């Protein structure tokens, strides 16, 4: 199944974090398949959030350095001259080239079932956004007659 960059990100966001051991192994493998390689991360203009790890005590109270921001590599804190550390957050800049990029994602029957069940639950609980539409349509193709009927109501 070919997925766009946005579809890959959206699918990574909704994959279940819990389940039985077999499902967890399938989800882990699917996450690896959906993940971005170094070249793709460069095309995305990926920047990571870094914070200064410096801590001190002022008037007996612990304080932290307030310096933080998004950079492609770890900068030094200008105030404390130490390398800043990643927080785990990152930002993407979607270039037109990256938005148009498609990747073939191979999924077995169990992976497809996990994804479709997850999308179905998200739909039933109204957790989907407009960015999920193309992904949802790949797992549940719209039936033209149903759409036509719904539009006429």
UniProtKB/TrEMBL annotation:
Protein name in UniProt: Uncharacterized protein
Source organism of this protein record: marine sediment metagenome
Organism classification: unclassified sequences, metagenomes, ecological metagenomes
